[in-house]
């Protein structure tokens, strides 16, 4: 039997994985009793419920045809996330300017129409404007 | 206490110059961000949250509410001018509003939206002033068991009235609850799911999750869908409606106001449900239903009034019961908690100036919206012509700096990156992210009340049916579930969300 990778199937599998992980990882917390709940009681209820729902979704998706999963646009996905990640990694080491420029350039690379000069100008301009607004205008920091 | 005295107190707060200023700033920023294609109220509020954290609670709340109305109206503007609704609540506006714009009546459509919203906003303010004290009075009697059942009712209601798969929505609530457990358990001081990272001891900030999912995740999705290409924006001419047009928009606006104000109070209700229902209603009462979809003014006035009325009355369960009815209210409750405020019946009793100030600011906020938008709509339209390739890097940058500025924590930015991916994944899997946010906010409250109720009853679960209030909520929950299972209503629910 050929299994179609539908959105429902994948969601179900994710729920089972997450719920199962939480059950295993959460088993280290004492459940206690209903009258005196330990830290593990409620997590066990919730992760058990999540696993159950995941199983139902998986079974249902195997019985009926659901929405197919469309193609994934890797370019925006990877580059936007990489940009934000770079911002997080650079901000404490090199400061707002470097982090902001890295983010904007990576974000512009995510788009097919990319021009270096435009991206560079945009990066510097936006970062300076943001620095002005956030640091001096609002005094956040 | 009497309504007028309360409102008087409220207006004395809302009209204080600083509060007016923050309300104005909120409306302005909310409109500017909300008008950008692809950004609905939830995303707009998420992105702008950090701006309010450094303010006094009163000003922050007024500004947040302003951002909300601004975002709502900005979304309608985009829907009308470029047929790109930012969020589900303006999908309906796009149908006839954009048709009107194509016929050269963009100005009229925008004015209709603004005036209908203002009418609904004014009415809903009075509904809140009248209903909230009574409801808070009742809520003061609630014990832990009652709160537990109320929240279960609220979550089930949110799932049923939301669109999309019910099973997935329940799953998303549970995922949100699991995320809400991260941090030190208040009762036992045991760190849960912190994976040895000390910074996770205080839990993950909801603003980090919201900005990751709604700010970063949605940007990726927008880029993937359309690239950075832009669409043609309709020109705006002659904004002011004629008397004949005013007369045409008044009855649907009134119907929308009543319907929206009522639907906003329901758990899971709010602008989306209200606007869809109002559109269906207008179509039903119209003498010429075939005009709908061809630029019928009723199709703009009704839903716009309804979504604004609902946007406001959905504050009622939040402020009186501490129960967020939808994702926007979950953001509001999260923001209040950051300021150390816990919404619920005590809020009105202990901080009347805060509560009534907010209520009064809803009206002033709506007034500012009209004053701001009618003359400035040309500028918003021009903002829409800005190429997306300049906009989205700016949005990402605001998100990244905003996340960082909450705790000056680079780790938060990394967590937000993860949630950006999670957000993208959820959209691709057709999972609504809104229930996740509700679960995240309500999870800890549900656990706490469950614990307390069972401690009092010494572990006897029958306490939930023995207490009359709790039993009522559970019975209502059961009714909702039965209703959900009934095939006739189920297809009706799908029809309301699909066909319109």
Q: What are the secondary-structure elements of chain A, in order, as H or E?
A: HHHHH
Number of strands of chain A: 0
Number of helices of chain B: 22
> How large a portion of the residues of chain B is in β-strands, by DSSP E?
under 5%
The share of residues in helices of chain B is over 70%
Unreliably modeled segments of chain A: none
Q: Which strands sit side by side, in order, in the main sheet of chain B?
A: 1-2
Question: In terms of structural class, how would the helical and strand content of chain A be classed?
Answer: mainly alpha
Which word captures the global form of chain B?
globular
Oligomer: heterodimer
What is the 3D form of chain A?
flat
Order of helices and strands of chain B: HHHHHHHHEEHHHHHHHHHHHHHH
* Helical amount of chain A: over 70%
Termini gap of chain A: 58 Å
Main sheet record of chain B:
2 strands, antiparallel
Mean pLDDT of chain A: 86
In percent terms, what proportion of residues of chain A is strand?
A: under 5%
Largest interface between protein chains, with number of residues from each side: A-B, 69 and 64 residues
Report on the biggest sheet of chain A. none
Q: How many strand elements of chain B?
A: 2
Describe the structure.
The complex is a heterodimer of chains A (141) and B (500). Chain A has 5 helices and no strands. With 141 residues, chain A is mostly helical. The mean pLDDT of chain A is 86. Chain A is 71% helix and 0% strand. The N and C termini of chain A lie far apart (58 Å). Chain B has 500 residues and is mostly helical. Chain B has a two-stranded antiparallel ribbon with strand order 1-2. Chain B is globular. The interface between A and B is large, with 69 and 64 residues.
């Amino acid at each position: 039997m050929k299994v179609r990778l539908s959105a429902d199937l994948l969601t179900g599998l994710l729920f089972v994985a997450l719920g199962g992980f939480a059950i295993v990882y959460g088993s280290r917390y004492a459940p206690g009793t209903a009258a005196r709940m330990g830290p593990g009681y409620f997590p066990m209820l919730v992760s058990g419920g999540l696993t159950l729902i995941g199983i139902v979704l998986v079974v249902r998706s195997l019985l009926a045809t659901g929405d197919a999963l469309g193609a994934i646009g890797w370019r925006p996905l990877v580059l936007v996330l990489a940009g934000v990640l770079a911002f997080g990694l650079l901000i404490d080491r090199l400061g707002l300017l470097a982090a902001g420029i890295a983010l904007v350039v990576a974000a512009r690379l995510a788009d097919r129409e990319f021009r270096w000069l435009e991206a560079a100008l945009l990066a510097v301009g936006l970062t300076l404007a943001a620095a002005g607004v956030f640091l001096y205008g609002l005094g956040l920091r | 206490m009497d309504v007028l005295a309360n409102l008087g107190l409220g207006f004395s707060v809302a009209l204080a110059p600083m509060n007016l200023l923050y309300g104005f700033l909120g409306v302005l920023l909310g409109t500017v961000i909300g008008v950008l294609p692809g950004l609905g109220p939830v995303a707009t509020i998420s992105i702008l949250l950090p701006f309010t954290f450094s303010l006094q609670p009163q000003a922050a709340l007024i500004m947040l509410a302003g951002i909300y109305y601004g975002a709502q109206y900005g979304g309608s503007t985009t829907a009308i001018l470029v047929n790109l609704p930012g969020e589900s609540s303006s999908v309906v506006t796009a149908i006839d509003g954009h048709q009107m714009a194509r016929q050269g009546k963009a100005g009229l459509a925008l004015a209709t939206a603004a005036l209908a919203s203002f009418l609904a906003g004014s009415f809903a303010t009075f509904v809140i002033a009248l209903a909230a004290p009574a409801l808070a009075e009742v809520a003061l009697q609630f014990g832990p068991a009652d709160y537990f059942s109320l929240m279960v009712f609220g979550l089930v209601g949110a799932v049923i009235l939301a669109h999309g798969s019910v099973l997935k929505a329940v799953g998303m609530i549970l995922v949100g609850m699991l995320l809400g457990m991260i941090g030190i358990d208040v009762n036992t001081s045991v760190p849960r799911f912190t994976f040895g990272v000390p910074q996770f001891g205080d839990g993950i900030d909801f603003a980090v999750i919201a900005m990751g999912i709604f700010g970063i995740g949605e940007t990726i999705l927008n880029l993937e869908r359309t690239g950075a290409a832009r669409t043609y924006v309709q020109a705006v001419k002659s904004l002011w409606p004629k008397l004949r047009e005013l007369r045409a928009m008044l009855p649907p606006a009134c119907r929308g106001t009543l319907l929206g104000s009522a639907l906003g109070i329901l758990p899971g209700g709010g602008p989306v449900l209200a606007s869809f229902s109002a559109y269906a209603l207008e179509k039903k009462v119209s003498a010429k239903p075939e005009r709908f979809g061809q630029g019928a003014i009723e199709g703009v006035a009704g839903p716009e009034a309804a979504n604004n009325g609902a946007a406001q009355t959905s504050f009622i369960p939040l402020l009186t019961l501490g129960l967020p009815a939808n994702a926007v209210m979950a953001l509001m409750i999260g923001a209040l908690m950051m300021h150390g405020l816990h919404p619920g019946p005590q809020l009105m009793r202990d901080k009347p100036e805060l509560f009534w100030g907010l209520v009064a600011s809803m009206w002033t906020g709506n007034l500012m919206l009209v004053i701001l938008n009618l003359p400035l709509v040309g500028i918003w339209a021009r903002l829409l012509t800005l190429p997306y390739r300049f906009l989205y890097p700016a949005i990402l940058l605001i998100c990244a700096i905003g996340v960082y500025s909450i705790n000056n924590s680079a780790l938060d930015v990394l967590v937000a990156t993860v949630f950006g991916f999670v957000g993208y994944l959820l959209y691709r899997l057709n999972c609504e992210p809104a229930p996740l946010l509700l679960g995240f906010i309500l999870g800890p409250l549900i656990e706490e009340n469950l614990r307390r109720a069972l401690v009092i009853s010494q572990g006897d679960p029958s306490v939930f049916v023995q207490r009359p209030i709790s039993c009522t909520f559970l019975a209502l929950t059961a009714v909702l579930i039965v209703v959900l299972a009934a095939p006739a209503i189920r297809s009706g629910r799908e029809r309301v969300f699909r066909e319109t």
